[in-house]
Amino acid sequence: MKILITGSTGLLGQALVKRLARCESVIGLSRHPTPAHGEARHLVCDLTDAQATRRALRAIAPDAVIHTQAMSDVDGCEREPTRAQQENTQTVEHLCEALKGRAVPVFILSTDYVFDGAKGRPYDEADEPHPLSVYGHTKLAGERVALRYPKTFVIRPSTLFGPGRDNFCNAIMQRAKQQEPIDVFSDQATSPTYTVDLAEGIQALLDAMARHPHRAWPRVYHMANGGGCRRVEFAHRVLELLGYATSLVRPLRMAQQPRPAPRPPYSVLTSRHLEPLIGRTLRPWDDALRAYLRSASSWR
Predict the structure, then answer these.
(1) pTM of the prediction?
(2) Region for residue 106 given its phi and psi (left: phi exceeds 0; alpha: psi -120 to 50; beta: otherwise)
(3) CA–CA separation, 15 vs 194, rounded Å?
(4) N or C terminus of the chain: which is more exposed, having fewer CB within 10 Å?
(5) Count of CB atoms within 10 A of residue 177's CB?
């Protein structure tokens, strides 16, 4: 199977390349050249360009596409809504149009920020989205574009952490190493998700679909490590596991540190589809965090 991974140099993209290249032919795609790493071929393409997208998809002729490329800077999206719409919505349409008429499964990575947090309990796939920010609106628009086409599926993860790129967990680790105060929101809860686990879950879903090509599959999946926590609790846990004083953490409410984009106060995810289809859910976030910190030995 030939799998195209867009955003292959991003946090999740790198984990997917590493995971899937073990047993599949993988082509990575990003906006900019990247040094060869030996795990996959790499193609440079601007997916906001419809013609370039068609040419790239025609040349690659993938058997499956995993679209992780996005403008994920939440505040940047609020400041540049046109660019956010181009990168988070138009790219989805260009991909789907380029593959129109082909029986190629396309997995679109979305976000927990399509929810407003008002529910106060974990969101599953049946919950109606109601985004607060430009980022959330453009990602939801991308979902809706994708679902107009057959063989397209939406995967919603939550706060990602893992190797390869800056992320919330690594920022905590870096500041702790420098013995610097760490300002963390005390009133925002998410489902921290390890990119290694997410890549494994996506592979399991892809494999299940390949085994049962004629099955009627759900179109939207929540895929996050089990459970949820407030960001301040996550920061405390990182420091505890690394042996740093939790007093480095300075809890503050979102209102105390205004940002351009509003965030949902509660976007913990759960899934009604995942376990019945792949036989499991992703492990609890605390177990995943332990695994990541064990692998990140250079931080100790």
Answers:
(1) 0.94
(2) beta
(3) 10
(4) C
(5) 13
Structural tokens at position 245: 């004083």
Helix (H) or strand (E) holding 275: helix 274-278
**Which contiguous run of DSSP H or E holds residue 29?**
strand 25-30
The one-letter code for the residue type at 147 is L
C-alpha dist (Å) from residue 175 to 232, 244, 246:
14, 11, 12
In the block, residue with structure tokens 């759960």:
270
Q: Which of 135, 221, 244, 266 is catalytic?
A: 135
Is 292 one of the catalytic residues?
no
CA atoms of 51 and 48, how far apart (whole Å):
9
Query: pLDDT tens string for the chain (300 positions)?
Result: 899 999 999 999 999 999 998 877 999 998 877 655 556 688 899 999 999 999 999 999 999 999 999 999 999 999 999 999 999 999 999 999 999 988 899 999 999 999 999 999 999 999 999 999 999 999 999 999 999 999 999 999 999 999 988 899 999 999 999 999 999 999 999 999 999 999 999 999 999 998 988 888 999 999 999 999 999 999 999 999 999 999 999 999 999 988 999 999 999 999 999 999 999 999 999 999 999 999 876 444
